[in-house]
Design a protein that fits this description.
The chain is of the alpha+beta class. It has one domain. The protein is 44% helix and 18% strand. The chain has a two-stranded parallel sheet with strand order 1-2. β1, α1 and β2 form a beta-alpha-beta unit. The longest helix has 17 residues. It is flat and about 35 Å long.
């Protein structure tokens, strides 16, 4: 499995699933990063006016530069 980048917010209903995925990747030694942003809802990566959105995108692009 390729390296994985996981991003979510604490207000995202899918936070438990994101954390579970990161834990499963950790157990199987698959490279991954989990980034959790305080009070961000599901889909905040599409809200470009938010500074957390821009920061998450910056981290995502840095991850892609490292692994590709």
């Amino acid at each position: 499995m390729p390296p994985s980048f996981i991003v979510c917010g604490t207000a995202d209903d899918l936070l438990p699933e994101s954390c579970a995925l990161a834990e499963a990747l950790e157990r199987t030694a698959i490279p991954h990063e989990l980034h959790v942003f305080n009070e961000m809802p599901h889909g905040f990566l599409q809200m470009s006016s938010l500074s957390d959105c821009r920061e998450a995108q910056r981290r995502m692009f840095a991850f892609l530069r490292r692994v590709l």
